[in-house]
Amino acid sequence: MLQQNEKFRDGDRSLQKAVIIGGGISGKLAARVLSDYFQEVIILERDQEPIGPYPRKGTPQGEHLHALLFAGSDGLEALFPGITEQFHSSGAIKINSTQDLAWFHHGVWKLRFDGGDSSTLQTRPHLEWHIEQYLKRIRNVTIQYNHHVQNYVFDKEKNRVIGVKAKDKSGSIKTLHADLIVDGSGVSSLTSNWLNQQGIHIPEEKVKIGLSYISKFFQLPENHERDWAIKLVYPNPPHEKIGGTLSKVEGNRYIVTIIGYHNEIHEKEVLKTENGFIELTKRLPKPDIYQEIKDATALSDTSVYHVPHIIWRRFDKIKNLPEGLLLIGDTICRIDPVFGQGMSIAVLEAQELKKLLHQNQTQQKITATFHKHAAKIISPIWNMVLTEDFRYPETIGKKPDALSFQQWYAKNIFLLSSENQEVFHSFIKVMNLIKPTTILMRPKIIKSVLKRAFSR
């Protein structure tokens, strides 16, 4: 068992208890951080206790392709030392990030070379299972399954959330008081409606993208000429709206995830016949994925998931947000999952929370400061995502400033990534959230962009 020794102090008293709503990735990350500073950390999870690394009801997106970017992978290892090796020893696939990735993007194949970086390919259930097993070895963390949080316990006079009311499997309602409540339950959490009931308005940015995810697992025929571990065929906006990824994962399986923007995929047609999924892959910009799976053995049913819009709830702009309440992960921002940044954002937020707690600030300042710092993490990523989402005229929402220039510049970076190794390597670091977008504005890269643009 792992014993956490540090205690976070609020004034002159040691903080006793933190309650986390939701046992998904964000909730687990928050629990790991808080376990170093609170005497007791309780996760309240709606689902039943898992019996293995399998999809669960509370995360329907778990049956689709997931990825940890460099920043997310590095941060996860820092929070859970040794977990990366656990992933690999239990079947996750370690790849060279630029050598083993075949990526068709905006009409060109990106360069493939040894950039010295590695990535891990695995399913979300596999990743989440190992995080959960790690948490169960920490003595002051407990997970209470089959618990549905229904309301907050609120001290209106002090404007402070002091607990939650939760219903257990038997239908009984119980009250848990805590020094800190963390909502990591995701985009459909109870917090937004509850704050509205208290007369607290949440500013939000919402963009309609009409995204559909359709996935299936396969066992591929042996092919000794297959020199990649993951192949990504991205649509070239605005005319192409369907893309797909074929990725190796644990268990000698491959997962194929097809994405379609603005309701381009008619899932009833896909689900109507056993061959519907394979027929869908014929609509991709390149036939590569179809060629790989046309003779493959299906290992699962076809799964469907919808993201009609992305949303960023600006808790950082609420001046009278109740104390004792902290939001994390998709509860704050659900971003376009196509770009794989969601889990990594949650990791970065957890690291930021750890940093603030380590500085021994008062709890009141912790919650207010955390939401402001989380916004600084999200803002550049949100802007990058919208730059791509708004390549489709059907996308509805507030557009970023200087959108046309950003799209023009980004497009040239994408195309240069098929011929200029330095540009692609810089783009990989930005995409993986370990470097700011400003590195793509270095004089040498600007010169390459201008040379490419004006020579054509």
UniProtKB/TrEMBL annotation:
Gene Ontology molecular function terms on file: FAD binding
Stored Gene3D superfamilies: FAD/NAD(P)-binding domain
InterPro entries xrefs: FAD-bd (IPR002938), FAD/NAD-bd_sf (IPR036188)
Every FAD-binding domain range: 18-359
PANTHER family: THIAMINE THIAZOLE SYNTHASE (PTHR43422)
Protein name, as recorded: Putative NADPH-dependent glutamate synthase beta chain
Species in which this protein is naturally found: Neobacillus massiliamazoniensis
Lineage: Bacteria, Bacillati, Bacillota, Bacilli, Bacillales
